[in-house]
Amino acid sequence: MGGIIALCITSDSNNINAEKSIYQVFRGMQLLQHRGKAYWKISSGKFEVNSFGSLPSFEIIQKFIAKQQNNPMNAIVGHLSKKKPTSRGSIRVNFALDGFFIDLDKLLTHPLMKRNNFEPFDQIHHIFKELLLVRKDAYKAAEFLDRHLRGNYVVNINKEVYIFRNSTGFKPLFIGEDNNQGIYLVTSENYIGSFYPYLKIREINPGQLVRLDPNHGTDTLTQLDKNRILMDPFEFIRESHVSSTFNDKSIYSIRKNIGKVQAQHLSNKIYDTNVILAEPDYTRPMALGLNQGFKTHEKRTEIVEGIIKDRYDDSDPMIDYSEQVSKNKLLSNGKTLKFVIEPITKRKKILSIQGTIQTGGTVVETVYYLKKTGVSKIQVIVSYVPTIDGRQVGLYTQQKDLISRKYIGKISFIDEMNAKIASELKVDAVFYNSPEILAKGIGVHESQLWFPEWIRFLEYR
Length: 461
Fold this sequence. Notes:
- The chain folds into two domains: 2-223, Glutamine Phosphoribosylpyrophosphate, subunit 1, domain 1 (4-Layer Sandwich); 249-457, Rossmann fold (3-Layer(aba) Sandwich), CATH 3.40.50.
- Helix content is 31%, strand content 22%.
- The chain is built from 14 helices and 19 strands.
- The two termini are 32 Å apart.
- The relative contact order is 0.10.
């Protein structure tokens, strides 16, 4: 999972300012930094600059641009990733990916497969190019990607940018046009249109293969038949920026409603709580919604800030630094940079709002410090469903580390899962969300969201 920014300029190449063009992509990547910070890359033909971690200052990138005097750079791709690239081919190709590939073993049977190399990314890129440019069959090229891709793929081939959004609309994707300047911008989120005021932003249809050509502008090469819409629900929990919109609603308001609907569903199960902790900070909209939902059922609760802080955006290197120092201190001498305001929590019944529980590390640390203040009860509400597949949330951790994964096939009811996870975390209760309630909070039918099959068919009461 990650973030995509691609730029194509149709003006006369003699008038293209490479530094200005790269800066527009760089600025877009800054705005999408929350979608991934493990690895980033800006590329245009032979020009490439990349590194791990947060984006640097633009002055550093300018030094690389200065060496490209003969490269007009009118087709640029920016890529942010939550995962460090493992394929050498992925480093060489001017591409961006927001999503993941599936059924890679089936590439072995494809007649266009390169026999001397089986790096899956290389094979996918090679077959796509062969179908599109050699056989000149845009429909088959798009159909091939659609068989293996869940998400969006953008690639610069011979100074033309090709954009494909898979037919389920799994990840959002938008294109902006500035006809006066001859600029086209592709982006993972529509909220950044506010920072490019002359662009007219529109959504790219699921199943569309679009080309951006510096000589002729944009054209749609093909449109696949739309499959059943199957979006990534994690976009609505954390992935998307709170200012992005979906169905004319901000992601912030959708997250509040997720909490409100979940509170209404749990009102008969959670009846003795004093303090709601938004934990980590990105769950604050859900916490507000939960409090609103509980108040309609005459619950008296107070919202306070959680222990784990992530309010600064992911481009702030101090966050990574402070988190690492905190973990080191905890391991070496039992101390940490995190703290609990004891008068607020002592002898209180705490309701901790977690966006997800993946490996359990965050909530375990929270519980450790809460119990040191003498709380009387800790219950945990999870805004998301149990995480059993790292692709659910763009994880780069090992699947075996997911706290819920070991229960696949061993339980049939979510109440059993809640009880087992609560025991592992040493809390009084855990309440995961269900696909149905999450979909209701988002405002779509459950069938429009993607969940691993076992999660979808667990019994939720």
